[in-house]
Amino acid sequence: MGGQGVERREILRYIGIASIAATFPGFSRWSFACPADPSHVPVSASADSAYKPLFFSPDRYRVVEHIADMIIPADDTPGAKEAGVAEFIDFMVANRVAVSARGEIRSTAEAIRQGEDAQVQFVDGIDWINARSKSEFGKHFLDLTGEQQSSLLEELAYKAKYKPTTETGREFFQLMRDYTVVGYYTSKVGLESLGYPGLRTVWPKMPGCTHLNDPEHRNLGTAK
Fold first, then answer.
1. CA end-to-end span of the chain
2. pLDDT tens digits, one per residue of 128-171
3. Which of 6, 33, 17, 10 is nearest to 87 (CA)?
4. Rounded to 5, what percent of the chain is helix, strand, coil?
């Protein structure tokens, strides 16, 4: 749905941002973040770990998580939910980091302003999605059937299905797509899906990683 192809040079541009985010101790599922506790259960086994959003309300956070998973669902590789992309989005938005700059950023103040604009767009966009859902189907977005959810988002994702007065929703979906793609493809599972050649060399050196003897992180759940 999201057209989630992404240029490798764009991924590399965001690696630095993502590595800083990986040091945040609040992450429980975003798979870029290497847990300091070797007994931590792997991402796939900790899908229900509690994460306390920094920016979004719990209800808005659930919408972000669900839409991210619709943009990059699990198939033969883990999807956005398994990679913990919603945690990445929440962290970036809370810290006013714009991952899809609208125009050239010439100063720190301009970067912060664009990050603040993203905060407003996310809140307004999620509220718009729920209002549209109520108008079209009489329920909030997360209460719709999967078919209804897809129908609503397809009107925002595909030009051939655009409808009048949906500009706010289309802008939100594009923003959501950008953050989702960056979050996913800077996570370990996302880099693996691309066959990123530096993963085996770079991954053990990421900030906060204490598992240098287990660079693939295959034994975290079995450590005693």
1. 42
2. 999 999 999 999 999 999 999 999 999 999 999 998 889 999 99
3. 33
4. 60, 0, 40
